[in-house]
């Protein structure tokens, strides 16, 4: 039985090392998969918000511009940033942990002003003009979250309202004031579209899948240990015990010990055959010795 204990200890050690390596790699793969899934979702939402911006510029603005001119009012629904933000607001009613913001360093609407980490994102785009996208992770009030951002450059339509207060629509100036949201320059990166999605749910799913994997591996390990111990017992340990018992009895002078059965052609069978030949040789030698003494 000591052989089985040693075998079980060695098998447990080797299996444990293998599980540790496989577990680490698997968890990393599951976590990376969760991250990629959230990033893909963020990219899809970003494309949807960009489509809302384009729809507002191409279709909504031409419809509402005459109404603004007729009534001398400013309709924020004509502003792409306002339309995208409001559109995403309806989505947040169902997914409150999701957020979309057109974070601006010098916004007209105060709700678009970039907070510290958003300002860092905008400055990253400014410092690297060729940078088209930026993603990363950050800690939020609801846990770990992923953000995905794209730069916004000031173009012709933007400068009609944001170059100087004197040339901006009077109704807009009357609504938001003349202190903020002006001085933008052609081609300047003035904001960033930023989408934030929670990582807690997909990471929790990844952890659950990892625990399930460990459970299955544990079941496989226990089953394998039982089967291998049984195989080891009947093919090695039990025959080895018979050989040991035979050797002990012969060493004590019991020469009438029955021969061991020889089954198969493996090393254990060869060893049993050798013991049988040794016993026969010993019996013959003892008889010859006895005959010589008579």
Explained architecture:
A hairpin with a 2-residue loop joins β2 and β3 (143-153). The mean pLDDT is 83. 19% of the residues are buried. With 294 residues, the chain is an alpha+beta fold. Helices cover 64% and strands 12% of the residues. A four-stranded antiparallel sheet has the order 1-4-3-2, with helices on both faces. It has seven helices and four strands, in the order ααβαββααβαα. It has two domains: 24-204, Beta-Lactamase (2-Layer Sandwich), CATH 3.30.450; 207-293, Helicase, Ruva Protein, domain 3, CATH 1.10.8.500. The chain has helices at residues 2-71, 80-92, 116-127, 156-162, 170-176, 200-251, 267-293; strands at 99-104, 134-140, 143-153, 189-198.
Structure keywords:
294 residues, alpha+beta, Beta-Lactamase, Helicase, Ruva Protein, domain 3, 7 helices
In short, what is this structure?
This protein has 294 residues and is an alpha+beta fold.
List the helices and strands and how they pair.
Layout: H1 2-71, H2 80-92, E1 99-104, H3 116-127, E2 134-140, E3 143-153, H4 156-162, H5 170-176, E4 189-198, H6 200-251, H7 267-293
Antiparallel strand pairs: 1-4, 2-3, 3-4
User: Overall pLDDT, averaged?
Assistant: 83
Structural class: alpha+beta
CATH class of the largest domain equals Alpha Beta
Give the uncertain stretches in residue-range form.
none
> What is the 3D shape?
rod-shaped
CATH architecture of the largest domain: 2-Layer Sandwich
């Amino acid at each position: 039985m000591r052989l089985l204990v040693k075998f079980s200890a060695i098998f447990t050690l080797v299996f444990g090392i293998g599980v540790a390596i496989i577990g680490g790699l698997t968890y990393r793969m599951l976590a990376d998969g969760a991250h990629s899934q959230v990033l893909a979702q963020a990219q899809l939402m970003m494309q949807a918000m960009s489509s809302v911006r384009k729809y507002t510029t191409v279709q909504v603005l031409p419809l509402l511009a005459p109404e603004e001119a007729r009534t001398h009012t400013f309709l924020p629904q004509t502003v792409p940033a306002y339309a995208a933000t409001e559109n995403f607001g309806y989505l947040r009613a169902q997914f409150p942990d999701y957020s979309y913001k057109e974070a601006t360093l010098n916004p007209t609407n105060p709700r678009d002003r970039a907070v510290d980490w958003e300002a860092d994102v905008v400055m990253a785009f400014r410092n690297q003009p060729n940078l088209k996208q930026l993603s990363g992770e950050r800690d939020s009030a609801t846990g770990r979250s992923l953000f995905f951002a794209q730069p916004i450059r000031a173009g012709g339509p933007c400068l009609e309202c944001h170059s100087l207060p004197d040339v901006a629509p009077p109704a807009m100036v009357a609504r938001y004031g003349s202190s903020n949201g002006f001085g933008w320059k052609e081609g300047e990166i003035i904001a960033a579209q930023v989408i934030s999605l929670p990582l807690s749910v997909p990471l929790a799913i990844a952890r659950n899948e990892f625990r399930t994997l460990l459970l299955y591996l544990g079941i496989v390990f226990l089953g394998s240990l039982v089967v291998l111990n049984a195989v080891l017992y009947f093919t090695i340990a039990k025959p080895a015990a018979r050989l040991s018992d035979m050797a002990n009895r012969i060493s004590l002078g019991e020469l009438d010990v029955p021969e061991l059965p020889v089954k198969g052609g493996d090393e254990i069978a060869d060893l049993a055959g050798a013991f049988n030949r040794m016993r026969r040789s010993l019996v013959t030698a003892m008889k010859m010795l006895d005959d010589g003494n008579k």
